[in-house]
């Protein structure tokens, strides 16, 4: 499971929603990032933390001339990012970034920073952000329409692992020993 995002990005997706947004984010997310881009000086240096395959940088570059750098802890797909006007670096954590102090005019992140050690990541962000620099984040909330159903799926998976699989393992053990048995499963 450690490399799941590297495996995901290797498939060539531009967004974290796979086939749902084949070309890139649309609607509110697109307008949010392009609007933010327009608030920056013309040739600002922008860092995208948790860039994936560069979806947000592509949105920003459609309306600006910013110098964009994207980092991700996962391996970024160079076949995807070579078509985007930016510099991309794989295997970089938000908690320890290889940049000079006060190097960036803006630091952005979408659906990424909240999965890091937030205290360390924000400290690093503060270090590399220029005075008067801008930080713009889009994060999952624990009750968002994305997180909530996935949390329920994960909890169901844990319940299956914890209860049903244990009962089946016990049944297999009994059957392997050729012992007559009955099986009682309690529904919780």
| Low-confidence parts | none
Percent of sequence in beta strands = 15-25%
Described by strand count, sense and barrel closure, the largest sheet is: 5 strands, parallel
Distance between the termini: 29 Å
Radius of gyration: 22 Å
Helix content: 25-40%
Categorize the overall geometry. elongated
Mean pLDDT rating: 85
The count of DSSP E runs of length 2 or more, i.e. the number of strands, is: 5
For the largest sheet, list the strands in their spatial order. Answer: 3-2-1-4-5
- Along the chain, the helix and strand elements come as HHEHEHEEHEH
Alpha plus pi helix count: 6
Classification by helices and strands: alpha/beta
Secondary-structure map with pairings?
Blueprint: H1 4-10, H2 27-38, E1 45-49, H3 55-61, E2 67-72, H4 78-81, E3 87-90, E4 104-110, H5 118-128, E5 129-138, H6 147-176
Parallel strand pairs: 1-2, 1-4, 2-3, 4-5
Describe this structure in words.
It is built from six helices and five strands. The chain is α/β, with parallel strands linked by helices and 188 residues long. The protein is elongated and about 75 Å long. Strands 3-2-1-4-5 form a five-stranded parallel beta sheet. α3 (55-61) links the parallel β1 (45-49) and β2 (67-72).
């Amino acid at each position: 499971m450690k490399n799941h995002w590297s495996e995901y990005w290797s498939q060539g997706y531009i967004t974290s929603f796979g086939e749902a947004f084949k070309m890139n984010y649309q609607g509110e997310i697109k307008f949010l990032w392009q609007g933010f881009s327009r608030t920056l000086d013309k040739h600002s240096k922008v860092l995208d933390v948790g860039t994936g395959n560069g979806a947000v940088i592509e949105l920003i570059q459609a309306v600006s001339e910013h110098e964009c750098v994207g980092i991700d802890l996962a391996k970024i797909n160079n076949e995807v990012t070579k078509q985007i006007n930016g510099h991309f670096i794989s295997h970089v954590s938000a908690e320890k970034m290889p940049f000079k102090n006060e190097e960036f005019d803006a630091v952005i992140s979408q659906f990424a920073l909240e999965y890091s050690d937030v205290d360390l990541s924000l400290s690093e962000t503060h270090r590399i952000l220029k005075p008067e620099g801008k930080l713009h984040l889009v994060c999952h909330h624990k009750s968002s329409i994305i997180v909530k159903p996935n949390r329920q799926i994960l909890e169901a998976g844990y319940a299956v692992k914890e209860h049903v699989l244990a009962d089946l393992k016990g049944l297999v053990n009994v059957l392997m020993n050729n012992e007559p048995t009955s099986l009682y499963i309690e529904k919780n």
